[in-house]
Amino acid sequence: MPTVKAREIRRIVDNIYRAIVEQRILPGTRLVEAKLTEALDANRNHVRSALQELKHRKVVTIEANRGAYVSRPSMKEARDVFEVRKVLEGCAIEKAAENITAVDIKRLKKLANEEHKAIAAKNHPLSIAISGRFHKQIVKISCNQLILELMDDLLARTSLIIGVYERKGTGTTCHFDDHDKLIELLAAKNPQACRKFMVDHLEHLEQSLALDNHHQWSQDFTEIFQDMGSWQN
Q: Of 39, 113, 139, 153, which is most buried, counting CB atoms within 10 Å of its CB?
């Protein structure tokens, strides 16, 4: 049974992690302990512990004399992440095409429809979150537990990459029409076609990024976590 302290640190980790993955807190943003403590109504020591855990997950960087800030992947790291995703998700979707059931198709269609609505509403954080859940759901269908365990960190790093290298004004995410096509190929139980389309899909996302594009951000943490609506116990 987790202690009260452990549960509180987990709450802080989960909320900061979600805010980063959904691009509510952007790469390069300083994570000032005092501001996070106030925004999350938390204990400062717990916030410090949470930042150390997020550092271990490589979404936060902590440097002497600079403090903590949201990690900014290099161009090489960006390419490495996409290379790994293409291999792992290509493998996973092949297996998913063999395992897929009518219930699985229904779940994927529900996620795709939710993504359509989020994009139509111009809710960028929500569309990012749903896109990640869509990709993760395909891995779940593959029943490959190791790839599933890696997906959260790969999706988080992808969000950081998009936050750094996204072309200004484009709102880069996965192309949701591609998700509809992936569902169609999965329903047809065509493993080779699924693998090829998944790899092409991720390649297209990678190529849509401007790898010389960098930003500096300053953000209001209280507004971010209140807008998320789930930061409280």
A: 139
Contact at 8 Å (CB) between 47 and 12? yes
- Strand, coil or helix: what is 175? coil
Cβ(40)–Cβ(231) under 8 Å? Answer: yes
Which residues have a Cβ under 8 Å from the Cβ of 140 and sit 6 or more positions away?
Answer: 148
For residue 101 the two structure tokens come to 């059931």
- CATH code for 4-72+214-228? 1.10.10.10
Tokens representing 85 are 């995703």
Per-residue pLDDT tens over the stretch 50-91: 999 999 999 999 998 889 999 999 999 999 999 999 999 999
Q: How far apart are CA 218 and CA 179, in angstroms?
A: 33
pTM of the model: 0.81
The domain locations on the chain are 4-72+214-228, 75-207
Specify whether the CB–CB gap between 183 and 108 falls below 8 A.
yes
Non-local CB neighbours of 216 within 8 Å, separated by 6+ positions: 28
Q: Calculate the CA 116 to chain-centre distance.
A: 18
Separation of alpha carbons 61 and 70, rounded Å: 6
Q: What is the DSSP letter of 218?
A: -
Report how far residue 211's alpha carbon sits from residue 23's, in angstroms, rounded to the nearest whole number. 18
Which residues make Cβ contacts (< 8 Å) with residue 88, sequence separation at least 6?
A: 139, 147, 150, 154
Mean pLDDT, contiguous 10-residue spans, the chain (233 residues): 92 94 90 96 96 95 93 93 98 98 98 94 90 96 97 92 76 73 97 98 91 56 69 49
